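Might I ask for a little of your time on a matter of protein folding? Here, with my thanks, is the record as I have it:
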Amino acid sequence: MKYVLWAIGLYILYQFIFKLVIPVFIASRKIKKGFREMQSRMQEQMQQQQQQQQSGYTQQPETSQTESKFKSGDYIEFEEVK
């Protein structure tokens, strides 16, 4: 009877480790790696923006081109009817 209880306990421990602990550990490593990559990309973008600002280069946003289209008379005003 003692060996049966030991076998059941070892089986439960095995299942706990391989079905819960290891997958959670692997997932947390992947998430941390993703956060580190995202942080490094953000830092690179910030450095590029700072370099552009220091060199005096400013890029016009593309929205100004679309706004000029609307100002030329293509935009139709409307009122909401309830």
